[in-house]
Amino acid sequence: MELKWLEDFVSLAETRSFSRSAELRHVTQPAFSRRIQALEAWLGTELIDRSVYPTRLTPAGRVFYEQALAMLSQFHEARALLRGHTATPAATIEFAVPHTLSLTYFPRWLQRVEAQMGPVHTRLRALNVHDAVLSLVEGGCDLVMGYHHPSHPVALDPARYAMLTLGLEPISPFSAPNRAGHPRHKLPGLPEAPVPYLSYTPNAYLGRMTEVIIANAPGRLALDRVYETDMAEGLKAMAMAGHGIAFLPHSAAEEAVAEGRLLRLDRAARGVSEGLYTLTMEIRLYRDLLPGHGDESRQALVQQLWDVVSQELASGSSATPSSKDK
Length: 326
Description:
Order of helices and strands: HHHEEHEHHEHEEEHEHEHEEH
Number of helices: 11
Strand content: 15-25%
CATH class of the largest domain: Alpha Beta
Distance between the termini: 49 Å
Radius of gyration: 23 Å
Largest sheet: 9 strands, mixed
Shape: globular
CATH architecture of the largest domain: 3-Layer(aba) Sandwich
Structural class: alpha/beta
Helix content: 40-55%
């Protein structure tokens, strides 16, 4: 049995709605239903009376609801107790951050924050965007930093989760230069000579952003997918080695561009429009307004950091990544 099954069941018992609970748990309704069914299969009994609407618990479900609350409470108490006995400082903020931001934007952002509030003990988990958000929903972290774009929004209930927009992050196509200093590969390519394309895996958030760029391009792009990974750093390395074009966040490509090892392909030039294949995402910070059981000093530190960042944004002094590349 998985802990998230208990949390799913408690949510369903309280909302009496599969769709609402799926939204709150940040999963699709079919996935949420499968997890409830998996819990029922593990217990060997039906917990939900599906013959009525709104959803209600079976007699066994009502009994198990009380047990589930007790088990979740014991789990959170055990986690808090064990954290108190580790060598990690009590007041440590736990972040979940997508891989690219953890290597590029996050270190510089934290430096600005610490310049105002002093050193901050942090623990960072580098995850994909979906898993980072899920970590917040399931109580696995204090703050999530991630990308957001209207075409693929992060579906968190604003009544439960607070959000700050920290800055903007463009994503554009890049290629290594040839010996003459011109791009080795160019867009849009030709059907008979497609451009070698270094792609994200389908489940990567930046991959979905890239698909939006390709779908909205003014003309059809002739691309030959020759390589695939879920890491922007991996695509950057392959692009610098000349294997093809890669759509990269500007913060990831900034250093390579400054060194002349990568060239942005939609710079204003003869026959090329500035930003023709560029999409701009927001960088957002999220927190749970109803944090679970935890150390009060850590929650106070989270609130202090949130206030510092809010004040910085209100003053307009926050920095946007890769300003040289825009």
